[in-house]
Specification:
10 strands, 9 helices, about 25% strand, alpha+beta, about 40% helix, BirA Bifunctional Protein, domain 2
Amino acid sequence: MDEAARRLRLSSLHPRIIHDHPRSPQDQMDTDERWARLAARGEMGPTLRFWEWASSAVVIGRFQSLDAEVDRDAARRGGFSVVRRCTGGGAMFIEPGNTITYSLIAPLSFVSDVTIEESYRLCDQWLVDALGDLGMDAFFSGVNDIASPKGKIGGAAQRRFPASGDGPGSVLHHVTMAYDIDARTMSRVLTPSAEKFADKAVRSAAKRVDPLRSQTGLDRSDLVARLIGSAAVSMRAVE
């Protein structure tokens, strides 16, 4: 599937777009899974939800070991909740003012005829286009990342929910992007190994993630509003 085909399929989705109220980290996880299951039963239509975080968090993947990924003491001292999401993938470091997260929930048929890698690109083509419209050189990297020449911008995770009752099944696709980053705190909270505390490792972490703030020059609220507007046009969102 090329870019034009992705754009065409996205334009037929017609999701409802929700800029959600701030939720606790655990409520974010619960809401995503609950809504995806409702969609799988046919009780909720396509939805694009932009999150607002009520507090800081570390979100680990469905299959990750908490102790292998997080220094629990450092997380507690820093006021970070540690929660597990229903999708796979790696740990996410969340600070409310420094993070932009969204979830796309669509019928399973939206992705059922493409590969896993292509399904990620299909769900995020609108985002790459939107960032390009803002002057960024954004592109897909690997299976589930979005990057620029300076480093990673964000990462995606996905889970498919089978049809339930007369419902169509659903795909849950969510993306977390770094608007800004506190690399030193991140290096203390994630992966409790001695090298993570070294200045060299902190500098390396900052280079690997390319925050949207430096690339766009926009306030976070303005950037979210621009992304919502782009998504509404790309997917022909319903009111």
